[in-house]
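Re: beginner question about structure tokens

> Can someone show what the tokenized structure looks like for a real chain? I only ever see the sequence side.

Sure, here's an example I had lying around. Input first:
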Amino acid sequence: MPMTRRHLLRLGAGVLALPWIAPVLAGPARPSRTDLLEEIERRAFLYFWEQASPRTGQVRDRARTTGREERRMSSIAATGFGLTGLCIAEARGYAPRPLLLERVRTTLRFLAHQMPHEHGFFYHFVDMETGQRWGGCELSSIDTALLVAGVLTCRQHFEADPEVAELADEVFGRVDWPWMLDGGDTLSMGWTPESGFLEPRWDHYCELMILVLLGMASPTHPLPAECWQAWRRPWVHFHGLDYISGNPVLFTHQYSHAWVDFRGLRDQHADYFRNSVLATRAHRAFCLDLADRFPHYSEDMWGITASDSAQGYVAWGGPPADARIDGTVVPCAAGGSIPFLPDETLRVLQHLHRHHGRRIWGRYGFADAFNPATGWVNPDVLGIDLGITMLMAENHRTGLVWATFMRDSRIQEAMRLAGFRPA
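And the corresponding structure tokens:
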């Protein structure tokens, strides 16, 4: 589709008029699983297009379900998911390739040449129009990694464009991963100019795998291979399921898998894809056990992960039991686990759309969270939660993100250094 003046028309807070999105905003009331996944991905892309600054490419941390938004806080992790979402959009024809490619270039130019950083690490939250640190937040090691994962996905997907390759290599090559070790063998969770390195470390199993692998893959400032062995892998036993988990929040079993294809592979410790399958089964069983307190939890409706709640943002989940759980349902818990338990998770997403869609389905898809028992519905969507759902939906459908990210020879070498072999 050729670009026209209308493609570039500004509408309010950074929203562009996209005449090809009409099918996104319509569709059958009871879509098939395939159609629902298509609708989920299209609407997530719409978020990453509309809620990013056309000048910097930085993506808002959150927005209203209606699409109207003035808040300027950007999450660098949301930008990483958004960059990957642009690759999915190009592959699926959601928007013209030249327009998507220019947005990628804009984002990478800003990251490479204007975004404040320290030793290549970026602040967790920034002003989406200036890139300046938001409040007193930290340089975030994990969020920088999620951003870099999106950068490298764009490098592979748009590999024919020399500027994308050059900018991506500049952003990746600048990150001084050993600096974040701060003299230890595990990475600090972050750094602030006021107090230096944060005391908490990435020292046990969670979403850290992509962080350590990217550090080991660095062509300029690599982490030693020993860092892969340095973090603990505690075992959890629940309802006859044994799996590694250092955190009861479900997204910790999702994020690394959005980009790294662990299927059919294992290191000396575990098959991490199978581990996430087991962790998701355990979480589903955990939610079903809560049905005596919250009868709406069922095979049709389960899933609790870090999200908004009526009391604010909560990093909740299970097992083990979390006293803060109040009956809230978080759609991205199932959405981010689609490749692990496709039948069970898609059953949930179809149920949510069919039976609760009038209240929780908006311009960008499902609201971030809702509580069927109290009637509370989050007025917001979160970029990272839309992002994990979009990427995992596409990986389930085609494996596109996995295939694209894993083509990077530096990632392949990091996997070799970590000791991965066929399972």
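Each token stands for a local structural state, so reading them left to right follows the chain. The longest strand covers residues 235-238.
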